[in-house]
Design a protein that fits this description.
homodimer, 5-stranded mixed β-sheet, 385 residues, 18% strand
């Protein structure tokens, strides 16, 4: 470690909100985090050479949260290289062991370019997705292919109708795994075929994003298979298959990533624990290559607040070193009459995702899709390509 | 789906504890879960054929929790085949979307043999680990190689001392990634060498379990590499690298799995959300092949209660179809003076894991390890092999 003493090693910072639930001063709680997430031994056991190299987390700042009772914002920095510049160990340093403690929430990350570049971020980003879909400045319109259990010909027919109706992205339902009702390869091939045929009629570029959630043995083949069909992107749930699996396979096959938040919700149940939606579904999902991050919009059947949703959208789109901006996709019980409100809150660089309500609107899915597109045009005007 | 109407499809059951936080009856909350986790559309949109096939979750039972206020235990069954018999989609059906709702906690799983067999469970189990370590009926003794940042020769020397002192399993610290201080291959080779040399002296079978947390591109090679060195098992954190990654690679290389709970803690912060430690670190980790499940013991520096720890140990060891029983490894701030108490609570089929306290006990690690072993012998007597 001699090289580390000559010049200070690059560090990154994690903002922890600490809810102190005992009589110990917040400084002790922060010091516990700094040890726990690095050397994981009592402070009096840290070897001198390890301490001198700055391997223990460093408390950079602690300040009380205004009006937050016994809550404090603590910024702790870590050497960037203790992450090994790989996602599993990065997550481990951020929150591995302390996830099992009470009252610690991650509210922000400050990351140096070395880490951003190591993970790569979105391959397409806002402009890339707009180019793929052939959409200028308006929000993109998306729906979900559902429910699971339908025969493949019905699913393909739904794809065709949605595409003829003018939607930009048809994503599969995130439960649409490799099931015997609709085996993965056959289903994806027929749906992609249906969308391409509709595109040939309409002259548009509706995109079909199949869900990928296969076992470790199969998932690499699934990415390769959809790429071979000319599919441009996939729906995938990083918390189900592993965040680094998504990063690696999407980059290997140059596929756009629409990330689904399934199984992430334990981070959001308490305001005193986990990570904010902006950190996990925003910054971290963007880091691993998410081009479009699906999240449960406020006012639907989930519990995010408007402020959380806006902060998340900001984390996806704000400048972040060399990383491309990504698109927020508010969803989860959205209805056609909320297009204007959603457009106002999230602006044009957004994917509006309406699923069940489109099925409820009419039995004629093409007509439902058209109504959705008219709703967007009503707010944003025509979008000449 | 015609085949499904002739005989009822096999189902599995999830026990959800629902904390009702509004004025709607619990039946509506349970019905929401049954739709959300399967078809994910409003009830009035479910196609007849999908409903008839039993694809929507089925409410089997709802009863109030005694003394639990507005909490209810709801058992919901799902067709086993909607999991695709693969781990990511299994997790998705259990808790994917509803993780983002409030007040739903999984307290138990009832799984048919088809699902158990598909995932496989522990390859070694209690008896297999005892055989590898050459330990009869007493608890196994384990420690952690730490801290990160030490040069490889120091780590190898620690391994040698722990092995000479008689410990059964030397696991690496879970932050010991492929870092430039101690690159993975060189570190693992030297540590395994040191342990084997000590074993040749002592005649014992101390096991060395390296930590595996590499990127998706490297992790398969890391499993293969350690197997090639004659290593018998690994430490791995399923929530960091993906649960199915662990299942697949451990089985591919016939390596024992010591599972670390890093990054799982968001499940345990609230008694009204997530999964119980017994379900996640017990049943589910066992399903994916965990032979030894590390968890933060009560009375250490984490927050599990004694009851939670005992329930978790039971979930690892209780009969579960064709699956082998696994070993609990209470850890997280355990000290030498707690051996007797831990032995009383957890019994002999346990891995006692003492990390930092062993380093604190003495600068002579061999002596510290001997003291640990004497503590076990004091309670359990000699253990002739």
């Amino acid at each position: 470690m001699t090289e580390t003493t000559s010049q200070p090693a690059e560090r990154f910072s994690v903002h922890y909100r600490i809810a102190v639930g005992d009589n110990r001063p917040v400084e002790e709680h922060a010091a516990d985090i700094a040890l726990e997430q690095t050397v994981e031994i009592p402070g009096d056991c840290v070897p001198d050479e390890v301490a001198a190299a700055g391997i223990v987390g460093r408390i950079e700042k602690i300040e009380p949260v205004a009006g937050g009772g016994s809550r404090f914002d603590a910024v702790i920095s870590y050497r960037a290289d203790i992450t090994g510049f790989c996602v599993p160990q990065f997550l481990n340093v951020l929150y591995g062991n302390i996830s099992i403690k009470k009252g610690i929430r991650i509210t922000r990350l400050d990351l140096p370019e070395s880490l951003l570049a190591a993970f790569g971020g979105p391959q397409f980003g806002v402009e890339g997705i707009r180019r793929l879909a052939g959409v200028g400045k308006r929000p993109l319109a998306s729906t979900a292919l559902k429910p699971i259990g339908l025969p493949i010909p019905e699913l393909a027919a739904m794809c065709a109708a949605f595409a003829r109706g003018g939607l930009d992205i048809i994503k599969e339902d995130h439960g649409m795994a490799d099931l015997h009702f609709h085996p993965f390869r056959e289903r994806v091939a027929r749906c992609q075929e249906a969308v391409l045929a509709a595109n040939a009629q309409t002259g548009r570029n509706t995109l079909y994003f199949p869900m990928i959630s296969g076992s470790f043995e199969r998932i690499a083949d699934q990415f390769a298979f959809v790429k071979g069909l000319g599919v441009h992107g996939v729906l995938v749930a990083p918390a189900l298959v592993g965040l680094d699996t998504v990063r690696a396979l999407a980059h290997r096959h140059n596929l756009a990533v629409m990330a689904h938040p399934a199984f992430t919700g334990t981070h959001f149940h308490s305001p005193d624990h986990g990570m904010t939606p902006a950190v996990l579904l925003g910054t971290i999902f963007r880091l691993i290559g998410t081009d479009i991050s699906v999240f449960p919009n406020y006012g639907g059947r989930f519990s995010f607040t408007q402020a959380e949703c806006v902060e998340l959208a900001d984390a996806l789109r704000a400048p972040l070193g060399s990383l491309k901006p990504a698109l927020p996709a508010p969803a989860g019980g959205m209805k056609l009459d909320r297009i204007e409100a959603m457009a106002e809150v999230f602006g044009p660089d957004t994917v509006l995702l309406i699923g069940g309500a489109l099925l409820q609107h009419s039995n004629d899915l093409e007509k439902s899709a058209s109504t959705f597109m008219q709703g967007i045009r009503k707010v944003f005007g025509d979008d000449p390509r």
